Fold this protein.
Amino acid sequence: MLKQIGLLAVAFVGVSGPLLAGTEFQRASHMLEAFSAELREAAEERDAAKFPPKEYNRRLSMIEAAVNQAIVSAVNARSRPSAGELDDELRHALSPREADTNLASVLACEFSGRSYYVVAYALAVGAIASRSWIGVVGPREDGKPYEVLASVEDSLADKTVAIQSVGSVGNGAPTFLAYGTNWGDPHSHLTVILYRFDGHALNALLTRPLLTQGQVKVEGDKLQLTFLTVARGPGYPPAPERTEIYRLTASGIKLEKTWEDKPK
């Protein structure tokens, strides 16, 4: 089981396994906290030039690399963590003061006789800003160490992050939903992306962005999306609600039915 460790333990020689993974998660967490503090200071000083886009992205890339290295070290430990344990460790690293369930999500899956982790997380460095990462971690061959096999960058930019298993398509390739809403969005615009992992890459089978008051439901091989057709504020007539039903097939995903309900 993964455990947080004190700074004193870093001085020990020859540490490995969960202990090493713990120190690497702490390092990534400290990098994220330090960058967030620098951004707040620059905002208070109205110094927009301190972090131009190139430098901003460079710092986030460094933090992302540190987080991913911690994940790989954790899953290669002698006592390999469960998806829940890795999920918990990752959330605490990304929000050490109070683990935020909106910042990370981990699934375990099987494909072609091998075990994999599907990992999604957001690096939140501002009130409404974050950068997402979604990837699959596993062995390239039986008996080989786990590594990042496939990933997508920032497909849920500035959004909460969650993933949910949807079963498999085609030759049994794992399929999962990645979804999130904009931070602080009063209309809860939901973005949903359905991914398939074919053993080498993550392929998007369906992308439905910015669904107002969106909700997603999975039942067997069916995926149901429900959302308002338009965002309206207080005092305006309610908007119609649209429902879309998709079905997983051997070749991918197919829109099976759609309708709109008039406001009550």
